[in-house]
Write a structure and sequence with these properties.
This protein has about 525 residues and is of the alpha/beta class. The chain has 16 helices and 27 strands. Among the domains are: about 150 residues, Rossmann fold (3-Layer(aba) Sandwich); about 100 residues, GMP Synthetase, Chain A, domain 3 (2-Layer Sandwich), CATH 3.30.300. Strands 2-1-11-10-12-13-14-15-16 form a nine-stranded mixed beta sheet, with helices on both faces. Strand 5, helix 6 and strand 6 form a beta-alpha-beta unit. The radius of gyration is 23 Å and the shape is globular.
Length: about 525
């Protein structure tokens, strides 16, 4: 029998094969837990078999998308992994999108089958879905769900009988593993196709992270690559995943304390909310060994606070769902580099280029492009968009454009200036919103903030700020605007500042600046 350790030492293995090996070697260990309880590796492997066999029974061919629109549960995990075992392409879709957008993503993927929970089935009742519906039944359907779609089946009824085995499917490294739809922060979501080789790279590179004995807290959605880069390695190495539903800072700490969590991936806004709890220090987090963050800017001050007060190593990862290259910053070991996102990871290469696609000189700013073993195949059905996302060097090597502007320091640590699309050019001067946001956050009345560029007849563009008031601190916007502009250079100053109850964010914490621009447009109209 080939062991999981043998597989992990090879050049390539599939995640379902690793889970099968864990089921044989450590079958009683909890694999996935949610609010309803946990399932062990033996049960997970058997359920994955039943899902894969049901897909084959229904004629869902290898390479076909299998869509999932639901809250994270053990059933969700089994369907995701069962689709992969059948050679299909797991396609998790954000429930937070509008019903029309969800229907469009399902149609774009070409999925013949979509798995919904009761809440999302109700939300999609008015949409025309060509895919067959399987309803996760632990919520009991609910009013309107049982007859919402023709031919709808419950998950339990759809599964094949216990002990059913699927026909073996040969899977090559280049075969598609999943489709992840972009957040749509810059337009229509694009389906990012990621291969088995890319996911194998995410699992195999984590040899030193201790995932084999991990209890990993998952507090971000399973449709996000942010989540999968900790969810998949934990299962690949035989650890335990704890799925949390809607994020709440106090509930997270209570759950982490109860499960004696060792690992977690959180986005910066989640760290911010957790660290702001007055009784944070009263929770026993002593079992934590490895904390990570990605997906959004992570301030140096917040990193320092996490390092000082939360046990375990803190590592920030910088990368993108499309792949390219990743950087890692061990914040615990590099207290003087907290303003950076770290250095390129082994096997990852980053270059900086100018607007003409020419590499910039050392120490200069440029657009980040990267290549590594973990790169997307391309955008699903969008050849031109895939081509636009690529850059090739003189030797023809393929890089992915990250869309960020950055600079390397003398030690090879990368500092990000901003998203290239967010750069504001005012009166011929480049203004980076992140620079202005860093100043705004220093004001005692500002709990959260964002800066966008808006059209200006006088300057071409001009920066406008939004902020969320800090509880218990009262100061009006004009006073804050005057203070902020007093800290900025003449070419950087905000032309206006607006108060907001909260900033619009994606499920993984990215500020949706397009929505802020839409707010201003609506107000002007």
């Amino acid at each position: 029998m080939t062991t999981a350790a043998d597989m992990l030492a090879t050049g390539f293995a599939t995640l379902p094969d690793l889970i099968r090996a864990h089921a044989l070697e450590r079958g009683d260990r909890t694999a996935v837990a949610d609010a309803q309880g946990g399932i062990d590796y033996r049960t997970l492997d058997a359920t994955i078999d039943r899902v894969a066999a049901a897909l084959q029974r229904d004629g869902v061919a290898p390479g076909s998308a299998v869509a999932i629109v639901a809250a994270p549960t053990t059933d969700y995990a089994a369907v995701f992994l069962g689709a992969v075992r059948a050679g299909c392409v797991a396609t998790p879709i954000a429930p937070s999108a509008t019903p029309a957008a969800i229907a469009a993503m399902i149609a774009d993927s070409g999925a013949p089958l979509v798995f919904l929970d009761a809440e999302n089935a109700r939300a999609l009742e008015g949409q025309r879905l060509t895919a067959r519906i399987v309803l996760f039944s632990r919520e009991g359907g609910g009013p309107g769900c049982a007859t919402a779609f023709a031919g709808e089946q419950s998950f339990d009824a759809w599964l094949t009988p216990p002990e059913t085995k699927p026909a073996p499917v040969a899977i090559a490294p280049e075969d598609p593993f999943n489709i992840i739809y972009s957040s749509g922060t810059t337009g229509t979501p694009k389906g990012i196709v990621q291969s088995h080789a890319m996911r194998w790279a995410h699992v195999s590179r984590n040899t030193a992270a201790g995932f084999d004995t991990a209890v990993t807290m998952i507090a971000t959605p399973l449709y996000s690559n942010t989540t999968l880069v900790s969810f998949l390695p934990t299962l690949g190495w035989g650890g335990t995943v704890v799925l949390m539903g809607k994020f709440d800072a106090r509930a997270y700490l209570e759950l982490a304390q109860r499960y004696r969590a060792t690992h977690t991936m959180l986005v910066p806004v989640q760290y911010q909310r957790i660290m702001a709890l007055p009784d944070f220090d009263s929770f026993d987090l002593s079992t934590f060994r490895f904390k990570t963050s990605t997906s959004a800017p992570f301030s140096a001050a917040l990193k320092a606070d996490v390092v000082a007060r939360w046990p375990g190593v803190l590592v920030e990862f910088y990368g993108m769902t499309e792949g390219g290259a990743s950087c890692a910053l061990n914040a615990t070991a590099n207290p003087t580099k907290l303003h950076t996102v770290g250095q390129p990871m082994p096997g990852h290469e980053i270059r900086l280029i100018d607007d003409d696609g020419v590499e910039v000189a050392p120490g200069e700013m440029g657009e980040v492009v990267g290549r590594s073993p973990a790169m997307m195949n391309g955008y699903h059905g969008r050849t031109e968009a895939t081509r636009d996302a690529e850059w090739h060097d003189a030797d023809g090597n393929r890089y992915i454009r990250h869309g960020d502007v950055g600079r390397f320091d003398e030690d090879g640590f990368l500092t990000l200036m901003d998203r290239k699309k967010d750069l504001i050019i005012s009166g011929g001067f480049n203004i980076y919103p992140s620079d202005l946001e860093a100043v705004m956050t220093q004001h005692p009345a500002v709990a959260d903030c964002a800066v966008i560029g808006v059209s200006s007849e006088a300057w071409g563009e001009t920066p406008v700020g939004f902020y969320v008031r800090r509880d218990g601190v009262i100061e009006d916007a004009p006073a804050i605007l005057a203070w902020v502009n007093g800290q900025l250079g003449k070419t950087q100053r905000l032309s206006a500042l607006h108060v907001a109850d909260e900033l619009p964010r994606s499920a993984i914490g990215k500020v949706l600046k397009r929505e802020l621009r839409d707010r201003l447009g609506a107000a002007a109209a």
